[in-house]
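Batch 3, record 17
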Amino acid sequence: MLKFIVRRALGAIPVLFGLSIILFAFLRLLPGDPAIAILGQHATPELIARIHQSLGLDRPLYIQYIDYINGLLHGDFGYSIINGRSVLADFALRFPGTIELTVGALIFAVGLGLPLGRLAARHPNGWLDGLVTVVSLFGISIPIFVLGYLLVFIFAVQLHWLPATGQIDPRLGLEPQTNFVLIDAILAGRWDAFVDGLRHLVLPAIALGTIPLAIVTRITRASVIDVSNEDYVRTARAKGLTERRVNSRHIMRNAWLPVTTVIGLQVGGLLGGAVITETVFSWNGVGSWVVDAIQNHDYFVVQSSILIFALIFLLVNLIVDIGYAFLNPRIRYG
Amino acid sequence: MAVGTTTLAPVTARVSRGLWGDAFRRLLRNGPAILGLACIAIFVFGAIFAPLLSPYDPTVGNLVNRMQPPSLAHPFGTDLLGRDEFGRVLYGARISLRVGVVAVFFGLVLGVLIGALAGGAGGRLDAVLMRAVDVLLAVPGILLAIGIVAWLGRGELQIMLAVGVSYTPIFARLLRGSLLALRESDFVIAARSMGASPARILLRHMLPNALTPLIVQATLALATAIIDVAGLGFLGLGPGDPRIAEWGEMLTDSARFLQSAPYLIFFPGAAIVISAIGFNLLGDGLRESLDPRLKR
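Prediction for the assembled complex:
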């Protein structure tokens, strides 16, 4: 098992290395001089040269790359060219918001997708199955921003049930400690803030979680139908086990495997989707930060945040692979 | 004497018309796929005949008529600048379909090149190309597209490139996988033993047999491409000309008026959803008709 983990972890290194080269090349070789982006209309040749010097852009490319990698290995992801703040510090400040949003979306997707998929698989091609199929078709066909505005329109503008934007009512005056709103509320013993944070989370989590919901539902349905047709399930029924026991011990235990893989694969999509969800709901996370950086031409922030996103994505995939190997011995020894 | 007259048994088995003929017949009997085709047809029709269907210029507004709710003269209402929303949704279909189709085609060509080289050649080239694909796969697709547009600048061509590149690894992986499975199949071994060159085996024997999953994937990718193109527009990375009607940008422009003019969000939003549903239904239908074993 340890050998498997080490082998998979080492496999991520060339990917990160390649990505760092591509990001570096993009930043340095393509049109759009960061110095001009910083100076805007005030750019003069002298000022541009001075900025180049201060950012080290006047040195040979390979030295710049070595410097960049050296910085990365020491945890230095560069500084924003707009406000001079450390990219890593800003990322750490905003990442909790994105984690809360993504976990909320994942809970919505898995919590609803698994039972829906099992329900649809109970009578394949029945009316319930048809309904679930139509709903999941809508789920993968509706863009996050359209669904987001639709939810805001119905539940915030028309019904006034839930707040439209933000993470918490600022009037509650909750002091940030961990920057996880819900955890901060628990730490401060503020039940009212916790409920308010949850109410703010509902709509963004649904908007972000709908595509994974559709996919988890489809895979669960297909997987349960697949396993239900296996001989050992028939045997289990034939020897007189209760339907409940067949379901939990024989069908679900085997149907889980493809479902776990697909749930793991959703994380990349969730991180990408968070960029759009956070923009719709003015959510203070990494996604809206990246969008701001792009609009301000803050290249270092864009470059480093994409690298950090990839790092997280690879890490999650690694955890999923390990979990999968843990569940399925055939992978471990294969 | 009636000797020698042989009566043929009535033909019960349907005559096969080849892979594509059979697949086409199955597709025509697939209700959801036909519904999908109809959704797509509506938008292609609307995009082509936009100037005939809408009497208004989608780029020119009439400030006197701004923010009008849907009416007979303006079935989808008018926007902040008094432009006809119906016409703008129709002209927006042109951009979404054009950019989506070109982007997927571009991603498909690039993906097939990489996948065919990797799966056909194998060995070290395969290893290098697949690591490159892993690098692209490590970045969530929409984020990759955002990054590329941010660097290349706004514009239709840039969006096509960005979305296309973000789909390339999917096609490359898919084709490589099919090719690897085909390499040991009997007909490939037969061709090899008859002395066919590696290029001929790849182009004439393996590629045609690996095409069907690519076609299905490309159709499904069209649905996500339309959503991604609108997503880029929504984030302010659209074609770059504020006069041009683009579904994603239309949504961003109207988001402030969710309370007073929800129809400005509803119609472009519905247009995106219906066209995405169309390509998703057609893709699923194609999958089932090209590989009937999948149908449950």
